[in-house]
Amino acid sequence: KPEAEKLAEVSRVSGGGIIDLVENYVESGLVSLTAQAKQAGDPEWLRKQSAKDLAALHGGMTERTFRLLTLVSK
Fold first, then answer.
1. Are residues 33 and 64 in the same domain?
2. How many domains does the chain have?
3. Does the chain have fewer CB atoms within 10 Å around its N or its C terminus?
4. Residue range of the domain that includes 54
């Protein structure tokens, strides 16, 4: 079964509780990512990071952003 069908089936069986859990999990994750992005925008903090660490941070944040945009646009 496609993932959406599996989730819908679990939701029906659990009385909808799983949907609430997933929504809360996603919301918490987005709040955490927002806090991380704000920290990454602090010039003082940025100056203390190595070029290697900044490259990894940039790559990870860019990847997550585009994945999220792709999912939202579907």
1. no
2. 2
3. C
4. 44-74
pTM (global) more than 0.85:
no
Judge whether 33 and 57 are in contact, CB under 8 Å.
no
Q: What is the mean pLDDT of each run of 10 residues along the chain (74 residues)?
A: 74 73 85 91 95 94 89 82
Q: What is the largest CA-CA distance in the chain?
A: 51
Same domain, residue pair 54 and 36: no
22 and 48 inside one domain: no
Q: Given phi > 0 = left and psi -120 to 50 = alpha, else beta, which region is 16?
A: left
Q: Supply the angle between the helices 17-40 and 3-14 in degrees, to the nearest 10.
A: 120
Taking only Cα atoms into account, the Rg of the chain, rounded to an integer number of angstroms, comes to 17
Residue written as token pair 């925008």: 41
Residues 3 and 24 in one domain: yes
